[in-house]
């Protein structure tokens, strides 16, 4: 199974990090950083589906997604064309990401940045904050209740917001119980990598909480998909592949944002 392979690899990486990083020193450095940007406020705008545009070089199933991938060019194009926030994959082995992509985009761009990785340890939260993240992804499927609560509470102390990703009703319930404020419904099953937009529909019908900010993620690639999400009241769409593989990124963003706006329904 891909997910368990990824987590196994992450645990190995983490062992090395634990030997090389000093949490006390990191905490001291974090105190001197400027405040983070408000990711949740940026993606929750009335009457439209916001776009969280992802910088993603590869996927475990499809391999490299783009031949002339350039994270800084993508970030520039995303912000020029109206993305509300940027998601940056930092996982290297399976997604071709790098932590340095996050650091470099932070220097070049003012939008809120989400670190997309497989976060399973508090050390990665310190690391995320230092690298310039405003928010981090926490995947309910790979975290125990205890771990999820622990990571949520440290994230809050570090002024990082958390996007808690769920794929099943049980994970949704766990995320809510742990106190998640921003829920990401992943349309892709991380065990099989099959994508189905109806996952968002199914889980939304169980989520009767106007206070929660809802993001739909994966497999979103067209105006029609965005219209579907808009009608269901989703706040934001997280899009990777459709943007990094588009012949013209700006055009694709325009199409998606138009679909997410109320006007296009008539
Ligand atoms: O490229 P897509 O189909 O637009 O999907 C983006 C994003 O949702 C996907 O990259 C993702 C969702 N959850 C994750 C967890 C880890 C790594 C990646 C992901």
UniProtKB/TrEMBL annotation:
Its EC number is 4.1.1.48. It catalyses: 1-(2-carboxyphenylamino)-1-deoxy-D-ribulose 5-phosphate + H(+) = (1S,2R)-1-C-(indol-3-yl)glycerol 3-phosphate + CO2 + H2O. The gene is trpC. It comes from Desulforamulus hydrothermalis Lam5 = DSM 18033. Coiled coil: none annotated. Gene3D superfamilies: Aldolase class I. Residues 3-256 form the Indole-3-glycerol phosphate synthase domain. Belongs to the TrpC family. This is Indole-3-glycerol phosphate synthase.
